[in-house]
Design brief:
This is AMP nucleosidase. The protein has 456 residues and is α/β, with parallel strands linked by helices. The protein contains 17 helices and 14 strands.
Length: 456
């Protein structure tokens, strides 16, 4: 099934029916300044949903004949698709959720290019300019709901997890759904799919018909984490940093399930923000959880955080093992505190403007060999700044593992070298080694070849 190819012609359903000639030309421009490469890559990843590929380069190589064109008709646009993965179709017809995701990709790529990147109104060299851009991308995607009480739970975790961990994420999602809490994830498989799947059952039992399953991704990672069709709101942010900011600005609390380097990156991102002195009083529920078999995993994560960021960082989260009901109740109570805090200050429920996010967490990090070597991984700096550099280190490992450009860089120049103080490098090396031993770097059945070398 996965190896099959399908040609088709599809129309949008009520969204993005009209594009200007200039927008179409830009999307179909294969040159350096065009958007076609990004558009094709994201469209192929969406159509590859349910596949066992988590390697951006492998996906592009397998479907070299895949092509997607925009046809302008008097009544609007159509997408002409050639060589699409058969997995996206049932009895020859495209799955509706995937159909919607294709036009979400088109919407976001057009908007970001025309209204953000090429718009002098957004000063992307300033922290407030970047936050404003994140807000506008989310608003254009219609995912900000002003009349809704806080109830959006962000779920982070690995795309490569074992069956016990996956089932646990579904059970937590189910308990959240029973409490009418909505789910936001990175929208891919594993710990990103499980909570949504569980929540759909909880919502159905409570006759909660407006359940939201928000997926936030970005072009570099989408091939490794193809959006699952449960997602009913998909947003493509322009880079990983804006994706992470979108999570913490829109979510009212975060649950972290077991994962690999990408999950460690997310943990370091949120801890770095919460450790900023200006964010000390802002309530933000953060829970690490997994089944009984994951107890050692979280013990090691907790130890790593203690050794690198210290006890203050450890106070910003709770670890709850093998108790989905407690996780859901704790999150529900934490979100009540968020609501009370924002209500008392007349803050928006739908976007966390009050949270201070420094430029260190916003500036896009290109994981080149030089940039990875030059990371400042030492303790002679504010702890939230150290967290930002540690986040980049793990981001580089993710790029070398699954992103097409990162994989090519490793093939061409060899391993990323990560330098720093021994007090940081040794626990980092142990943590990464445990991810490899537990098969958290790649999907099951694939041998993992490290893309990095920790230099002690």
């Amino acid at each position: 099934m996965e190896q099959g190819f399908v040609d088709t012609l599809i129309s949008p359903e009520g969204k993005l029916e009209v594009l200007s000639k200039a927008e179409v030309l830009k999307l179909l421009d294969t040159g350096k300044g065009g958007l076609y490469k990004t558009f094709r890559q994201c469209a192929l990843a969406v159509l590859n949903c349910g596949s066992t590929i988590d390697d951006g380069k492998e996906l592009l190589d397998r479907y070299q004949s895949f092509d997607i064109n925009i046809l302008q008709r008097e009544r609007g646009i159509k997408l002409e698709i050639k060589g699409a993965p058969a997995i996206a179709f049932v009895d020859g017809k495209m799955i509706k959720g995937i159909h919607e995701h294709l036009f979400a990709v088109l919407r976001d790529i057009v908007f970001v290019s025309n209204e953000v990147t090429d718009n002098p109104k957004f000063d992307l060299s300033r922290t407030d300019g970047i936050t404003d851009a994140v807000f506008h991308i989310l608003r254009n995607a219609n995912v900000l709901r002003p009349q809704t009480n806080p109830n959006l739970v962000v779920c982070w975790g690995g795309h490569s997890i074992n069956r016990a961990e996956y089932n646990y994420t579904k059970e937590v999602g189910y308990q959240l759904g029973l409490r009418a809490l909505d789910i936001c994830t990175g929208c891919g498989p594993g710990a990103m799919k499980g909570p949504m799947k569980g929540a759909t059952i909880g919502h159905a039992k409570q006759r909660f018909i407006n359940g939201r399953y928000l997926g936030i991704t970005e072009p570099g990672i989408i091939a490794a984490e193809s959006p699952n069709p449960i997602v009913n709101d998909l947003v493509i942010m322009p880079d990983i940093e804006k994706r992470l900011e979108a999570f913490v600005r829109t979510g009212h609390g975060i649950i972290v399930f077991p994962g690999g380097a990408g999950t460690a990156e997310e943990i370091l991102y949120i801890l770095g923000i919460l450790l900023h002195p200006e964010n000390a009083e802002i309530p933000f529920p953060l829970i690490f959880t997994g089944p009984a078999s994951s107890r050692d995993y979280f013990a090691q994560i907790n130890e790593f955080i203690g050794l690198t960021l210290g006890e203050e960082a450890q106070k910003r989260y709770k670890i709850i093992v093998d108790d989905p009901e407690s996780v859901a109740r704790e999150m529900q109570e934490g979100i009540k505190q968020v609501r009370e805090y924002r209500k008392a200050r007349s803050d928006a429920y739908y976007f966390n403007w009050a949270l201070r996010i420094d430029e260190e967490f916003q500036r896009p990090f290109a994981p080149t060999h030089e940039n990875m070597r030059n990371l400042k991984l030492h303790k002679n700096q504010p702890v939230h700044v150290l967290a930002a550099h540690l986040r980049r280190a793990f981001s580089g490992v993710v790029a070398g593992n699954v992103k097409a450009d990162g994989i090519r860089a490793i093939e061409e120049h060899g391993h990323f070298e990560i330098h720093g103080d021994a007090a940081i490098m040794e626990p980092m090396d142990r943590l990464l080694a445990s991810f490899v031993a537990q098969s958290r770097m790649k999907l099951p059945g694939k041998a993992y070849v490290p893309c990095y070398r920790v230099v002690l």
